Structures are given as structure tokens and as C-alpha cells.
Amino acid sequence: MSEGPLWSADLGPLHIDTDANQGLWGYLHLQIDKKTFKEWLNEFLTGLAAIHNIELTRKLRGFHKSFYEQTIVTLRDKLQADEAFIYHPVPLTYMPLVVHATRIHCDAPDAASCEGSAAFTVPNPEIPEWQQRTGSVPFASPHLGADGIRVTRSYPADASILMTSVSYHWHTPPGLPDVCLRGHHDDPEVMAAAIEPLDEFARTLRLPQTPQ
Fold it and tell me: What's the pTM value of the predicted model, to 2 decimals?
């Protein structure tokens, strides 16, 4: 991680907002300097270790430090996420569950014409189609409207790991950006246990200019 700010120090207002339960969800800063990151990580891990009643070993600290450093850079630079959030109930001995929210510019007149809505249901061309499992259901939001979809997908990350992902996409009214929320995990049981809280969290998302 670099010594200076990882992104702009002038953050301004949140791009995507939420009033989710802070006992279940935490905010992952995608723009943070090394000193602040170190302080945040120590406070965050100490708190989670107490909640889960687990010893915070040097190995666990190192694992989470590497994971969050890499995640911050990937979400910010590669995926250009607007916001990222951490699901607290996952034990420290597992890979953390991080979801990221992104605004998408879409001028399509309706959800059926929106490329973003269809993209999540298209098989990954780099993985044999028979190895992928995909399911989609309509997903309405009290803040982002009824033109939403939730897509779950499982696929092999390698010979031994089955990755599970969940994506939410809402096609919003003209003049507002579409919103996408995505997360993935290498333990299908973790995702299965988190799907209801994920749904509840997804329903809390809103754009700052939409009613609370």
C-alpha cells in the first residue's frame, strides 16, 4: 500500500447511501491513506474478534491486512466502485464478505432494453457454460424502484474452489443513474447464510437525491 492517499482526500458526499444496521454492516473506505488504514484495520479487527470471541493472532491480522489492501485497490481502480461495505457476521477465519455498489449510466427507456440488466445473466465466456449455475429473480427496491433484478451465480474459481456471487441491478427512472450491488465469496455456505441479510441490505440502498 502506498504511503500517500490512495485516492482523493476530498471525498464529498456519498455516491450511494444506506441506512443499514451498523451492527451487521460496516463501511470500507476506498480512499484512505496508509496511517488511517492501519488505525481503521486495528480497531475493526479488534472489534470483530470480540464479537466472534476469537483470538486475533498475527496470522489472522496479516491475512486481513493483505485481503483489504488488495480489495481496496481492486474495487477502486479496476472495478471503479462508488462504495464498498463489509458484512460483519462472517467469522475472521473465513474470507470476508465485501459487497460494492456502483452507479451505471444507462439511457435505455425500460429495463428490458438495459444492457446492464441482461449482462449479469450472460455466462462467463472464459468458463465452460456447463460449469456455471445462474438464477435470477425480480428484485424491487423501496428507494430505487421496481425495475430490479437479483442474479446468483456459482462457478469454479479453480479446481478446488467454487465461487458464489450475487448481483443486484436496478434500472432507475430517466435522469438517475442505474445502481448495481455485487459481492462474491469462496464458501457457498457463507453466501447461502448471508442471502437474506444481503437482500435486506440491498433494499436500503439509495441515491443521495432520492427520498429517504
Answer: 0.88
